[in-house]
Amino acid sequence: xxxxxxxxxxxxxxxxxxxxxxxxxxxxxxxxxxxxxxxxxxxxxxxxxxxxxxxxxxxxxxxxxxxxxxxxxxxxxxxxxxxxxxxxxxxxxxxxxxxxxxxxxxxxxxxxxxxxxxxxxxxxxxxxxxxxxxxxxxxxxxxxxxxxxxxxxxxxxxxxxxxxxxxxxxxxxxxxxxxxxxxxxxxxxxxxxxxxxxxxxxxxxxxxxxxxxxxxxxxxxxxxxxxxxxxxxxxxxxxxxxxxxxxxxxxxxxxxxxxxxxxxxxxxxxxxxxxxxxxxxxxxxxxxxxxxxxxxxxxxxxxxxxxxxxxxxxxxxxxxxxxxxxxxxxxxxxxxxxxxxxxxxx
Length: 346
Known about the structure:
The chain is of the alpha/beta class and 346 residues long. The chain has one domain: Rossmann fold, CATH 3.40.50.720. It has twelve helices and 14 strands. The chain has a seven-stranded parallel beta sheet with strand order 3-2-1-4-5-7-11, with helices on both faces. Strands 8-10-12 form a three-stranded mixed beta sheet. Strands 6-14 form a two-stranded parallel ribbon. Helix 1 packs across helix 6, helix 7 (230-241) packs across helix 11 and helix 8 runs antiparallel to helix 9. Belongs to the NAD(P)-dependent epimerase/dehydratase family. It comes from Butyrivibrio proteoclasticus (strain ATCC 51982 / DSM 14932 / B316) (Clostridium proteoclasticum).
């Protein structure tokens, strides 16, 4: 069978590509700009193109058909409209990578299923994903376009650490703060629940949907089964670094307001996603991919990631702006606490 991945070298997709590259029943093609060719398995075929150049892509794919096409870099309706024009009648299945952040939070139940309402007033990213889903499902209903919706949550790999509060350059500065013995900001009181998934585990669920006719016209969330509080997540990272965690809890509402002054979108990432407890019911995807489970729990996955990160510091940027932001917020709140205590004692 033939699969075409648009993108294919990101955190989520690379785990799938590596697994499929070892499966002789699949012939895998990547369509991207070729910036990470050295990391792609030798058996994978590369089509070098910018998906935004529709005419060029159309020419390069002329005469080709696929069993599965999946776009890992479609973030708005214009992107899936383009994909529909390119692949209608040329694939037996089109898998759209949506997001579990599209679910309404807090939902009526903390247990999230594929039937949980889609709505996110806090995050444009999530609203765009919802709009993409609606367009594709309308094409399925009207024209039989063979779409499958996949909703990942917080997926990571050996290059990334999943954290709740970080700056524009990612998680690395938080790791540095831990190593330097500085307090680390955690949203809320750290007790809300979250699911993190290593990309090779995600790949098992995703591949179980590929070429499966029972997946057509359906949506599936794919996450690990391990549920941790945010304090547990940060404590696991600190333990792997062999340092003491100094958690500093700040309400997500306050972070959202203060962050705006510094250009941080904590409203979307926290109020629209990570601040709310979620437990994902993965029974639907497991019916089609029964081997889907947490093979790499977080305490093992984070050590894999730190082994790579600490041995490749040249690939990561320090973020002095975020470091200063954390210090300002912590100092301001400490002073406010002292003032309140002093006032209450008078």
